[in-house]
Automatic annotation (TrEMBL):
One of its GO terms (molecular function) is NAD+ binding. It comes from the Bacteria. This is 3-hydroxybutyryl-CoA dehydrogenase. Belongs to the 3-hydroxyacyl-CoA dehydrogenase family. InterPro entries: 3-OHacyl-CoA_DH, 3-OHacyl-CoA_DH_NAD-bd, 3HC_DH_C, 6-PGluconate_DH-like_C_sf, NAD(P)-bd_dom_sf. Coiled coil: none annotated. Pfam families: 3HCDH, 3HCDH_N.
Length: 286
């Protein structure tokens, strides 16, 4: 069956799969035009918490970024119901390859035939989980950072993605106050994360090896680059469990040992996941 681009999408829902730290922020941005946005999670409590987050943050986002004050939100734990007639589906589940492969096979079967199936994966190219997808031309990476504070989005083809999808999203995403960037060739880590991976890896190692404390690294980074965003604060925002998954994947691709894994595993075992748990490399989150 030949794929055709979605039609009448201004009046159709958008679905975000996963109501965690990034999923709820992605859903917030995609709600700005007033379309119905559904957040699906296997844990309905997480989906409801995501919808509550959007409801509390949306007024400020509309004031600062523009958009439609009207909002239609739904929390779902029923995947077929969450996908019904959606024109865009964005996956934001943990960085587990098997999980994403199984999910995209399900999305391919359950979503509308013209729905665009996008992955927010920060380390896996979508080419790695289209084996069970009958229409790979509608699958791509749509990598968000930490909206609404950081609104860049990287779009990368699966190697089979219909070029018209890339053109459509490059044109449509700015309407949601997003800034799309086209990744012109398949790349592990896309554009920024490929660069950030080197900074993150060495930052973790100088702490794991006892060369410096996180505060020292962040203070130097802030002073030298005059940056408000620093490595360890940023990792705490992302979540140390997510950081570990991503580092494990990068090291597997490169065929090297993840020497920072024991330190991260120790933090995770203590429940120190970063901002979302109240403690990570720093213990001053309230």
């Amino acid at each position: 069956m030949t794929y055709t681009l979605p039609v009448n999408f201004a009046d159709r829902p958008i679905t975000v799969i996963g109501g965690g730290t990034l999923g709820r922020r992605i859903a917030l941005m995609l709600s700005l035009q007033g379309a119905e946005v559904r957040v699906y999670d296997t844990d309905l409590g997480v989906a409801k918490a995501a919808v509550e987050y959007i409801a509390t943050q949306r007024h400020r986002a509309v004031e600062e970024l523009g958009g439609n004050p009207a909002v239609r939100l739904a929390a779902k734990d029923d995947l077929p119901g969450a996908l019904r007639d959606s024109w865009l589906v964005v996956e934001a589940v943990p960085e587990k390859l098997g999980l994403k492969q199984a999910l995209f096979a399900d999305l391919d079967q359950l979503a509308a035939p013209d729905a665009i199936l996008a992955s927010n994966s920060s380390s896996f190219p979508s080419a790695e989980f289209i084996g069970g997808v009958s229409s790979p031309e509608r699958v791509l990476n749509m990598h968000f950072y930490m909206p609404p504070a950081v609104r860049s989005v990287e779009l990368m083809s699966s190697g089979h993605t219909d070029p018209q999808i890339m053109e459509l999203l490059m044109a449509e995403l700015p309407k949601y106050a997003l800034m799309p960037h086209l990744v012109r060739k398949q790349s592990t880590g896309f554009i920024f994360n490929r660069i950030w991976a080197a900074i993150k890896r060495e930052s973790l190692l100088v702490v794991a090896e006892g060369v410096a404390e996180p505060r020292d690294v962040d203070a130097l980074f802030a002073d030298v680059f005059k940056s408000e965003t620093t490595p360890f604060r940023f990792m705490d925002e992302v979540g140390l469990d997510v950081v570990l998954d991503i580092e494990n994947h990068y090291c597997e691709v490169a065929g090297v040992e993840n020497k920072s894994a024991p330190m991260l595993q120790e933090f995770i075992a203590k429940g120190w996941l970063g901002v979302k748990s109240g403690r990570g490399f720093y213990n001053d989150y309230t």
